Amino acid sequence: MSETPTLCFTELYGQEKAKRLFSRSLMADRVPHAYLFRGPDGVGKRLFALGVAAAINCRGRSGAAACGNCSSCRKYRSGNHPDFLVIRPVKGVIKIEQIRQLAGELSYPPFESETRIVVLEDVHSMRREAANSLLKTLEEPPADNLLILTAESSQEILATLTSRCQVVPFGPLSISDTAAILTAHGIESDTALLLARLSEGSPGRAMLFQKSEMVTLWREVVGVLSDPAILPDRDVSIPLRLAEKMAGQKDDLLPFLGLLKIWVRDLLLSTSTMGTVAKDDFNPRKSWSSAELFAKLQAISRAERELARNCNRNLLCEVLLFALQ
After folding, report:
1. Contact 206, 41 (CB under 8 A)
2. pLDDT digits (tens, 9 = 90+) for 47-70
C-alpha cells in the first residue's frame, strides 16, 4: 500500500530528541548551516529531513510544524520543489563529481524559497576526495542554504565533517511504533509485530524483509530447527533442502543470518524479559540449555565471517543448519 509521506516531522513516530532539537532551533531562528542526522538505517532520517525542509520553507507554518497546504508544502509533497535537492550514492558511493556539481548549484540563490535544502544521504559512503570537497563547502557555506547529511551510526565518517555540523542522534523505534508503521502500510498485525521485532525497531529494514520474503523463509527454518520430531541423523534431506533455499538468498543471506542470530539471542532472554513479542515464533517446541544456545550464536557468527570470504554458500548453510539443530 502506498502512503503519502507526512510533511510534519512532529507527526513521525519516535525520535523525540531530534524533534526537540530542531523545534528549538527553528523557533529561536537559530537553524545551523548544516545538520548531521546519524543513526541506524531505516529509522526515519530521510523522512525527518523532508519534514525539516517543509517546515523551514512553509508559508503557513504554525509553530515548528509545516502546514501541509501552502504552495511550498504542496511542492514538497509532490516531490517537485525546486529548492529541495537530494544527493544519493551511485552504486553505493557518493563521488566527487556529485559534490562538485552540488557546489556549482549552491553558488546560485534559491529559486523561490528563502532557503535551499540539500540532503546528502549516506555520507559514510563518500570517498575521501569527495568528503574533502564537501568539507570546503561546509567551511564556507553559501548563504540561504541548509545541508542535511545522513549517516549510518555504525559507519565511520571524517571527524572534520562531523565537527562542522550540528549532530542530531536518531535511535531505533519502539517495537510498538515500528509495528504501527508497518500496519499502516497494509501489513497484517501479527506479521507486523514479528517484523518489528526482527528488524530491531527499524521500519525500513522491516519493509525490506517483507519485500524479499525473507521472513517467510525464516519462519520455515525456525520451524524445522524447533521441531523435536525432526532428527538430524534421520531427516538429513530437510536441512539440505533448506540450506539450498538459504544460499539462494544471495545478497540477503547476511541479513538472514542476522535474523537467526536475533532469534537465538531472544531465546537466551526468554526466561527473563522476553517472551511477550511474537511468542509462537520465538519460543520453540525444543528445549535448549544456555550453553547450547551460546554455541548456536557462535556457529552463526562463524558463518557470517566465512560468508565474507566468498566461501561455498551451499556448504556454509548446510554446516550451519546442522550446527543449529
Report:
1. no
2. 899 989 999 999 888 788 888 889
Backbone angles phi, psi at 282, to 5 degrees: -95, -15
User: What is the C-alpha separation between 321 and 246, in angstroms, rounded?
Assistant: 10
**Whether pTM exceeds 0.70:** yes
Structure letter (DSSP) for residue 251: G
Contact 31, 148 (CB under 8 A): no
Q: Quote the cell numbers at residue 237.
A: 534431506
**Residue 30 backbone dihedrals phi, psi, to 5 degrees:** -130, 45
297 touches 264 (CB < 8 A) = yes
Q: Rounded to 5 degrees, what angle do the CA atoms 192, 276, 210 make?
A: 20
- Residue whose C-alpha cell is 522476553: 274
**Contact present, 99 and 132 (Cβ < 8 Å):** no
Q: Which residues pair with 149 in a beta bridge?
A: 36, 120
Residues in the chain: 325
pLDDT 10s digits, 241-258: 888 898 888 878 888 888
